[in-house]
Design brief:
DHBP synthase; Rossmann fold; 15 strands; globular; binds threonylcarbamoyladenylate; binds magnesium ion
Length: 327
């Protein structure tokens, strides 16, 4: 810790797993890298430590946290059973951008699940965080490391800018490779249900367990607050639709434009960001949150974007665009 950090209480950014471990063992918060987005982590078995997450994020306590661990064996310490189809998904896609809702054991504090009887569990695919988890005697509760409702962070710097003054340490694992949060999956009455679209596509899930139901309710008291109508939202107004028509409508404004693939958009007074000029969905997913953030932090008055084709990761990206625009 430098003198400046000591005086100003700002986070240190580094790659020191032992330092991260030490803070977490003392019940403090550490931001951790994952392949999806950065998480704001605390000891998942310690309600007081977990409460600090809600405080730092200004997150309502009806919004439960995902529990991160490093091996399937560990999951049986906090879940009573794993439905066979969910087990198959876990064996196929963990470590990876998949979160399973599983019946919880009492060892997981009610605060972590917001009183629900299922706990969300995932094994993230990031070498630093997997090493950290393997060295800890407890799993880590971690939501995305952003103030509640804002765009999720995909670099250590994103975390630093928004929560750096509230936490002691940010474990820097570079930019997140996937860039979208995990896909949340559970089982109800034998049916496999997707509650949040994310970094693992529906096609990938159905390839392993057959037809699934997608249940993305938009409500103010959702089963998964990633389902809230406004979420992942920049501070600037966001409009999604036909980019050229939207540009016509807002002629005299300075506009940030988010496009995908080839584009004929060209207008003075615009800042154009192309999610993937070659229409690669993975590239688009990895760029989405950092481009939204860049536009939000730039001098534009508003952000205009277009939906991607409703296939592959395009579905999850469109879900985030809708929530960013609250439509
Ligand atoms: O990729 C991710 O999932 C990232 C990284 C850090 O792992 N985490 C993340 O967490 O996106 P968060 O808190 O931003 O979103 C987690 C979602 C929330 O919408 C929450 O409501 C839902 O998971 N969730 C967590 N526990 C749940 C539970 N027991 N039942 C239903 N939904 C749950
Ligand atoms: Mg989040």
């Amino acid at each position: 810790m430098t003198y400046f950090q000591y005086i100003c209480h700002v986070a240190e950014i580094g790659k020191d797993i032992l330092k991260a471990k030490d803070y977490l063992e003392k019940g403090q918060l550490v931001a951790i890298p994952t392949e999806t987005v950065y998480g704001l982590a605390a000891n998942a078995l310690d309600a007081i430590a977990a409460a600090k997450i809600f405080e730092a994020k200004e997150r309502p306590t009806f919004d439960p946290l995902i529990v991160h661990t490093h091996s399937l064996q560990e999951v049986y310490h906090f879940a009573t059973v794993i439905h066979p189809s969910l087990l198959t998904l876990a064996e196929t896609y963990w470590p990876g951008p998949l979160t399973l809702l599983l019946p919880k054991k009492a060892i997981i504090p009610d605060l972590v699940t917001s009183g629900l009887d299922r706990v969300a569990v995932r094994i993230p695919d990031h070498p630093l965080t997997l090493q950290l988890l393997a060295q800890l005697a407890f799993p880590l509760a971690a939501p995305s490391a952003n103030p509640f409702g804002y765009i999720s962070p995909t670099t250590a710097e994103h975390v630093y800018k928004q929560l750096g003054y509230k936490i002691p340490y940010i474990l820097d694992g570079g930019p997140c490779a996937v860039g979208l949060e995990s896909t949340i999956v559970g089982e109800e009455n034998g049916e496999i249900i997707i509650y949040r679209l994310g970094g693992l596509s529906i096609d990938d899930i159905e390839a392993v367990v057959g037809k699934v139901t997608v249940q993305l309710n938009q409500s103010s008291n959702p089963k998964a607050p990633g389902q809230l109508k406004s979420h992942y939202a920049p501070k600037k107004p966001v409009y999604i639709g036909d980019v050229n028509e939207l540009l016509q409508e807002h002629q005299n404004k300075r506009v940030g434009v988010l496009v995908f693939g080839e584009t004929d958009v060209s207008k003075n007074n615009t800042l154009i960001k192309n999610l993937s000029p070659s229409k690669n969905y993975r590239e688009a997913a990895a760029n989405l949150f950092s481009f939204l953030r860049e536009l939000d932090e730039s001098d534009v008055d508003m952000i205009i974007g277009e939906f991607l084709p409703e296939t592959n990761l395009g579905l999850a990206i469109n879900d985030r665009l809708k929530r960013a625009a609250a439509i």
